[in-house]
Design brief:
The chain is 15% helix and 42% strand. It is α+β, with helices and mostly antiparallel strands.
Length: 306
């Protein structure tokens, strides 16, 4: 009996010591440190929002469907070069006008800083584009696809690239497969919605990734990939605001790493769903300018199309 009591007393002392140690640790700031996670754009106490894949797919379609036309004035910071090659040149204080009309008409006019002379004028109907560069007296036209990037990075501009970034197209669930990931850790709190198409052999090819932050469930990033898995467009969205009762990001960053150019657009003025006539999307070759059809051999020097 004495031996059993002794064992019981020893166990009680061990339990007591363990509880006491926990109390000491929990009350001693030098042994425990509490970290408050404050995410960009939010407050330390803000609760993360939750959603599901189908809800985000519907929201993307709703947002796209709410816009028939855009007529905007933006501050534009074009950037020529590539982070992969270690050199990027930015051009500040460029003013630009962006016009869009569904289904695929878009026109972008860029003006030089200070003097506000025209830097470029480009238009696309969704499949073909036209681009006029007054400083080069050069008029380019051809398919939207950049098959061979030009050494003159400005000639790699395509209005369709801007359209793909500015208006996120809906997900076609009849032909696109999707995955949904909750990527939340100490630094990130986003849902990532990825879309794939299936090749005849069953292989899945990544098309896009759409990132939604969990503080407001607003889109913050869109990645568009080519068939090799390389990034074609990296678009980032900030400061969503209402223009004519439609949500639209005030700031959009567009990066085209393979074409070696990018741009940051900040909305100055935005009109949504105001009528736009055909003449707003008509760009004819100026008299005396050099015409070049992209994808064809360069014309002999000194030749121009009237």
């Amino acid at each position: 009996m004495v031996r059993m009591a002794s064992r019981g007393s020893a166990a009680a002392r061990i339990l007591y010591s363990f509880v006491l140690a926990l109390l000491v640790i929990s009350s001693t700031s030098c042994l425990a440190r509490r970290r408050v996670i404050t995410r960009k754009g939010g407050q330390a106490t803000q609760t993360l929002l939750t959603t599901d894949k189908d809800t985000l797919i519907r929201e993307i379609a709703r947002q796209f469907g709410a816009i028939e036309t855009l007529n905007s004035t933006v501050d534009l910071v074009p950037a020529l070069g590539s982070a992969n090659k270690g050199k990027i040149t930015e051009y500040k204080d460029v003013r630009a006008y962006i016009l869009f009309r569904k289904p695929t008409d878009i026109r972008i006019i860029g003006l030089y800083p200070v003097v506000r002379n025209k830097a470029f004028d480009m238009v696309s109907n969704g499949s073909q584009f036209r681009l006029y560069i007054p400083a080069k007296n050069r008029f380019l036209e051809g398919a939207n696809m950049v098959e061979k990037p030009s050494d003159n990075k400005l000639e790699n501009l395509r209005p369709q690239h801007f359209l793909d970034a500015l208006l996120v197209r809906p997900i076609d669930t009849s032909r696109e497969k999707t995955t949904f990931v909750n990527f939340t850790d100490e630094d990130n709190a986003v849902y990532i919605l990825s879309t794939f198409i299936e090749r005849p052999n069953g292989e899945l090819v990544l098309q896009r990734q759409l990132w939604f932050e969990r503080l407001r469930l607003q889109m913050v990033r869109q990645l568009i990939f080519d068939e090799a898995g390389d990034i074609l467009t990296d678009a980032r969205y900030n400061d969503w605001q209402r223009y004519d009762r439609v949500l639209f990001p005030k700031r959009v960053e567009i990066n085209r790493p393979k074409d070696e150019y990018g741009a940051v657009l900040t909305v100055v003025k935005m009109d949504i769903n105001t009528p736009l006539t055909d003449d707003k999307f008509a760009l004819e070759q100026p008299a005396g300018s050099e015409r070049r059809v992209v994808g064809q051999a360069d014309p002999p020097k000194g030749t121009t199309d009237k």
